[in-house]
UniProtKB/TrEMBL annotation:
<protein>
    <submittedName>
        <fullName>Substrate-binding domain-containing protein</fullName>
    </submittedName>
</protein>
<dbReference type="InterPro" id="IPR054364">
    <property type="entry name" value="Ca3427-like_PBP2"/>
</dbReference>
<keyword id="KW-0732">Signal</keyword>
<dbReference type="Pfam" id="PF22384">
    <property type="entry name" value="PBP2_Ca3427_like"/>
</dbReference>
<comment type="similarity">
    <text>Belongs to the bacterial solute-binding protein SsuA/TauA family.</text>
</comment>
<feature type="domain" description="Ca3427-like PBP 2">
    <location>
        <begin position="87"/>
        <end position="179"/>
    </location>
</feature>
Amino acid sequence: MTNLKIGGVPEHFNYPWYLTLKNKEYTQEGINLRWKDFPGGTGDMCKALRSGDVDIAVVLTEGIIKDIINGNPSKILQTYVETPLIWGIHTHASAPFENISDLEGKRIAISRYGSGSHLMAIVNAYNQGWDLSSLDFRVVKNLEGGIHALQNDEADYFMWEHFTTKPLVDQGIFKRVGDCPTPWSCFVVAVRDEILEQHPEEIKKVLNIINYQNKSFKSIPNIDQTLSKRYEQQLEDIQKWLQLTDWNHGNPISEQFISDVQNKLLEFNVINAKKGVNEFIKNMYI
C-alpha cells in the first residue's frame, strides 16, 4: 500500500474527492490516500508542499505558478476546475463602501502572502487602474480571520470565493460590493517532484479516479441538494454555481496555458520574470 497525502480547501469544489475517498476507490488500487483540509487556502498549501506535509495539492493556478517560480519543488499535472473562480469583494455589512471604486487605498485582508486572496486583490487593483505599489495588506490567515478583521476594523475589504461567502452576505455579516473572476482556469493539481519520481504510476491512478468521477459529477441525482445541505448554502446558489463550474475530465496541462498565465501575472506585477514552461509541467498522460 502506497501512502499519499493530499490537501485542498474545505469547499464544494472538492466534493468529488470526498466521494472517491468515501467509496475507497484509491484503496482498491493499493493507495492509502489521506485528505487534509486547508482553510487557509493556497498559500498554506504551497507551504505544505514545500515542507512535505502534503504530496498532492488542489491549489489555485496563480498561487502555485508564483510559488514554483519562487522555488517550490512541485509540478502541475492538470487543471482540476476548468472555469474561472469568482472572487467576491466584501466589506463589513455596515461599512460606508458601496462600489469597488470606493476601496481604492483601503486596507486589504488576505489569508497570507502568495494566497489567492492576495494575488486576486492585485488583479482587482490592476483592473481598477489603482497604484499597485501602494496596496495595504493585512494578513488574517483564513476566512474566519477575514470576518474578524472586517468586524473589528482591522481591514476594509476581503476577497474570497463568491459562493462560499454568500451565506455571510445573506446573514448580514459581509456586504459584497462586486466580483472579480480569475482570468484563467482556477484550480490545478500539483504534486511534489519527489513523489512524481517515486510513485508515478500511483499518481496516474489517483488522477484517473478523480477524472472519472468528475465526468459524471454534475449528473449525480440530487447533487445540488446534497451540496446545499453539506455546505450550508441556499439551493438556488448551489444550482447557479453548478451551472458556472466545469471540472476537468483528464485533459493534460498545456504549455500555452502556463505561458498565458505567466504573461498575465507579469502584466499584473505579481511576478518579476517568466520561467520556461517545462519547469511547471509534468505530463502524466504520455
